[in-house]
Amino acid sequence: MGALIEIPEIYPALTPREALMMIAEIRGVPRSERNKRIEEAVSDVRMEEWIDRRIGKFSKGMKQRICVASAILSDPCVLLLDEPTTGLDPRGMTEVRGIIKSLKDKQRLILMSSHILSEVADVCDEVAMIDHGKLIVYDTISNVTAKVSGGENVVEVGLRRHVDKKLINKIAASVPSIDTIEKSDDTTLKIRFKGGLDAQERILASIVRLKIGIVSYRSASSALEEAYLGLITSTV
Predict the structure, then answer these.
(1) How does pLDDT run across 27-77, given as a tens digit for each residue?
(2) Annotated catalytic, 83?
(3) Which residue from 4, 102, 107, 192 could staple onto 71, CB 3.0 to 4.6 Å apart?
(4) What b/e string do you get for 16-33 counting C-beta neighbours within 10 Å, with b at 16 or more?
């Protein structure tokens, strides 16, 4: 098992190679495998060109990526990430989230804690909500949002063109299973519908056939926020 604590630190006078070599020794990585494991871990977090530069000159986001590399150094099958994007600027947050998504392809179980629900909706397949130490719900994100909204799910559709009433009416008339459709901003639609992933897949296929310039299609992050507020009513 590998872990990344909420506020990790790493010796600033060392290079990533030196720091990870020390960690590999502490964790019992065989000497013959250490260099290979270090280079693979650094590659996984996209820091190859910085592997021999002093960490003290890195941005916080770069340091966080090296800390993620230290967590995967021993090739764990379970990875614990505690608030992995805390304190990062928008670029650093985006980079770390992208790395976490890529780590999902390595046949690992990744457990991530976060209070940023848009991040959870973007990165995670399943969500657990805990209130004062009690598990309130654990399920796929679409099922959690559907439970709170009476079986209704919400997706956001991003378009290249501006959204107008004529376009909304066209989609409503042409796409089955839609309960409501509304404009989120100038180029984004919010669609509410009944059903799970099968219904979501059918809706996407129907909208694509309309050839209206879709550039993104995802579960609405606001739906998870609404579910959270509906399930956890007190912060005291």
Answers:
(1) 999 999 999 999 999 999 999 999 999 999 999 999 999 999 999 999 899
(2) yes
(3) 4
(4) bbbbbbebbeeeebeeee
Amino acid at 78: V
Of 83, 152, 225, 226, the active-site residue reads: 83
Q: pLDDT tens digits for 112-170?
A: 999 888 889 889 999 999 988 899 999 988 788 777 766 677 888 999 888 888 889 99
The DSSP line for the chain is: -EEE-SS----TTS-HHHHHHHHHHHTT--GGGHHHHHHHHHHHTT-GGGTTS-GGGS-HHHHHHHHHHHHHTT--SEEEEESTTTT--HHHHHHHHHHHHHHGGGS-EEEEE-S-HHHHHHH-SEEEEEETTEEEEEEEHHHHHHHHTTSEEEEEEEESSPP-HHHHHHHHHH-TTEEEEEEEETTEEEEEEESSHHHHHHHHHHHHHT-S-EEEEEE-HHHHHHHHHHH-----
Q: Which of 67, 70, 72 is nearest to 83 (CA)?
A: 67
pTM (two decimals): 0.72
The CA distance from 81 to 6, in Å, is 8
